[in-house]
Amino acid sequence: MRTFNLSDYLLQYLDKTSDTPRNRQLYRLMRQAILDRVLPPDTRLPSSRDLANELQISRNTVLYAYEQLLAEGYVEARAGSGTYVADTVPDTVFMPPTPRGSNAAVSDWAQLSQRGHRLVAHAGASPQQWGAFVPGVPDVTRFPHKIWSSLQSKIWRNPAVATLTYGGGGGYQPLREVVAEYLKGSRSVDCEAGQVVITNGIHQSIDLCLRLLSDPGDVAWVEDPCYWGARNLLTASGITIRPIRVDPEGICPDHADLAVVPRFIFVTPSHQYPLGMVMSLARRRSLLEYAKTHGCWIIEDDYDSEFRYNGRPLASLQGMDSDERVLYMGTFSKTMFPGLRLGYLVLPPSLKQPFVTGMEELHRSGQAPLQATMAEFMIQGHFSSHIRKMRLLYGARLEILQQEIARHFADDVQVVGTDAGLHLALRLPEKCDDQLIAGQAREQGVIVRPLSSYYHVPDSRNAGLVLGYACVNDANIAPAFDVLARIIRRHL
Ligand SMILES: Cc1ncc(COP(=O)(O)O)c(C=O)c1O
């Protein structure tokens, strides 16, 4: 079992935008971790130099925190061997609990399992899910809710008994059928309805794959940078992540990577998340060949390929797989609305039955009235017509945003990932602290994600910002970008 990772934890909670000096924050976080026994007695602390390097802060900041902990008896120095967490914690454990805030989160940790710790330590979901420039959120105000509501009412007027009992693990059969047809037609996925399992989204699809196909300690290759949600689910399951760099053709393992055969290869071949490139045909072939030779599972996350503005999308990786190595997953979060919580997982034929059973055992199946409404929405053509309308809308918003970026920065920043999806990425010069920029933007009501945070090890060489444009009204794009541009300009 993997142990608590001190620097990951500190990186998560150190707040660069806080008024509290960094050395005080570090001291408090470590003290709380000791009190909560997530840093148990006798744990050897990393040397101040190593910790400073890992956190990319000055050694003096770490030395202050260590000295304070030493003075208060939380740690002890052992001659010639280093600094250790003390056996007996000081009386301050009886002090009133720390107020809610970053330190309080540590107290809550004490009750968690190792798996829970890992999940919470890497949490990435933003509390803000709407407005300029929240990435990955469609314009839910344009959803044709009247059509949806009338389809739903019709189903509820005379609901079949089978829609109100526990359902089968694969989901509502007509939805499985229409999803299979849709994927065959639009994504060249090679499947029939029996291979489709309806889930409540990609997160659940990944979780199901991990529960049924992995054991702690297995290795997963993950694109670097990658989707924070996938990384978090893998980490929480005790999977050892091997970050693999991406080049313009997609995931690009080197010789050392190839020697570490993974259980899973997690990829976004249609639209790399968050940088936006499409995996080349040659790279797809090599990946499939490698997976076949070594018996790896490829997880294909096809989260937003419906929205392509330039060039034709390549068909799914799953459609090229003749050896049953690909688990394909998609979502209605982007094409419909995220609150719907519906997605689909397409399994190789050999896995379909265990997955249907696994879904039943883990989650019990249901939501048939919702799934029946979704099926009708697709069968009656509303789904494809909504996608067509939204593609035009988002394409226009993307153009406005690109014009604004060009107007403010000309060639000072590089824009990537503009061919498809609901977001783009701005690459910033190395000297820019993207976390700080994101924090300052948040204070002024503009939400962006620092690009470096999508990398396995956040690094100033990967400074940038990820901007979603789909959920921003045309008229709000320029004023919101003005605010952001002013902040960025101060850091250039
Ligand atoms: C790459 C990627 N995969 C998966 C998801 C989440 O999908 P779901 O809402 O179906 O869990 C997202 C959401 O932003 C995403 O960006």
Automatic annotation (TrEMBL):
Location of the HTH gntR-type domain: 20-88
PROSITE patterns: HTH_GNTR
Pfam families for this protein: Aminotran_1_2, GntR
A molecular-function term among this protein's GO annotations: transaminase activity
Keyword Transcription recorded: yes
InterPro entries: Aminotransferase_I/II_large, HTH_trans_reg/aminotransferase, PyrdxlP-dep_Trfase, PyrdxlP-dep_Trfase_major, Tscrpt_reg_HTH_GntR, WH-like_DNA-bd_sf, WH_DNA-bd_sf
Top-level lineage group: Bacteria
PANTHER family (alphabetical): HTH-TYPE TRANSCRIPTIONAL REGULATORY PROTEIN GABR (PTHR46577)
Identification of the protein by name: PLP-dependent aminotransferase family protein
Organism, scientific name: Undibacterium curvum
